[in-house]
Amino acid sequence: MKSQISKLSAYQPGLSPEKLKEKYGIESELHKHASNENLFGPSPKAKQAIKDHVDDLFLYPEPNAPLLQEAIAKHYGVDKSQVLFGAGLDEMIVIISRTLVRAGDNIVTSAGTFGQYLHNAVVEDAETIQVPLIDGTFDLDGIAATINDKTAAVWICNPNNPTGTYHTHDDIVAFLEKVPAHIPVFMDEAYAEYVSAEDYPKTLELMKQYDNVALMRTFSKAYGLAGLRIGYLISAPELAAQLNVIRPPFNTTRLSEQAALKALEDQEYLQQVVETNRVEREKFFELETALKIYPSQTNFVFVETERAKELDETLLRNGIIARLFPNGVRISLGFPEQNEVIRNVLKSF
Predict the structure, then answer these.
(1) 3-state secondary structure the chain
(2) Domain segments of the chain: what residues?
(3) 137-160 pLDDT, tens digit each
(4) CATH number of the domain at 14-36+268-348, please?
């Protein structure tokens, strides 16, 4: 076994509602707000596509989901050779790390961001450089200053998970000007569809100017297909071709491709979900509370507090399963009535 594996732990999901009820002696219903899932679910068209293709399950999927590849390329105005699929962005990070990161290299990202960037770098026996957040936001100047000749990849989560904060288009341009052109910069935009800020980066435009930039998005969040595991990368064709060598041949399923096709097609449903989320999200920033709530552009809010465990348990006793962090609690948004319960807890905490 690789010796560095001993430094890692397997991903630990939160306890199930049943286990939490047993642990805390809770009898009332619990609602899961811990994993940033879209509780409204996917488009009805995506659900119908699954039903329509269930008899195809005995067939292997077509490698790299060619129908969806064409649709994504058309949707974004890129060539299909630039599009590569993974079983969620988790697998895409694995593919990128296996392809680009060697023993003795380093990857640069932030402390307080999505943990799989670091996890997979350790697997490849690379150094992980984590620049502390500034007020819940990536320190882009600090990251740029840390990059060196051993840097194999830079990971920028925008909006950031778990804080929900974001960097503007101009912020990213200024950052990219400081990054050597040969070092890949991966823009993880898993929550991009939820963003309402007008100055959010136009990453596809930036890719025309900066060949080292790659975009990552997913159908797990706003599109509501987390259970089908399908995410994608858009990059320079040369990078996509290199990554495709490592991509497992049948890594995305027939049902996930068909559901994603219909979800992508139904932009009207997507916008309804996104607008409902925006309206509910804004209510948290109008809340009268002493707690610090970061200005999120996602479908969750992060509440910073030294009493994180106490807040997490208070939410739990009010029927809300949130995600506990050392410096706060991340709470996924849900239906209006559930969000109201959450706000009432925050007001009185």
Answers:
(1) CCHHHHHCCCCCCCCCHHHHHHHHCCCCCCEECCCCCCCCCCCHHHHHHHHHCHHHCCCCCCCCCHHHHHHHHHHHCCCHHHEEEECHHHHHHHHHHHHHCCCCCEEEEECCCCCHHHHHHHHCCCEEEEECCECCECCHHHHHHHCCCCEEEEEEECCCCCCCCCCCHHHHHHHHCCCCCCCCEEEECCCHHHCCCCCCCCHHHHHHHCCCEEEEEECCCCCCCHHHCCEEEECCHHHHHHHHHHCCCCCCCHHHHHHHHHHHHCHHHHHHHHHHHHHHHHHHHCCCCCCEECCCCCCEEEEECCCHHHHHHHHHHCCEECEEECCEEEEECCCHHHHHHHHHHHHHC
(2) 14-36+268-348, 44-265
(3) 999 999 999 999 999 999 999 999
(4) 3.90.1150.10
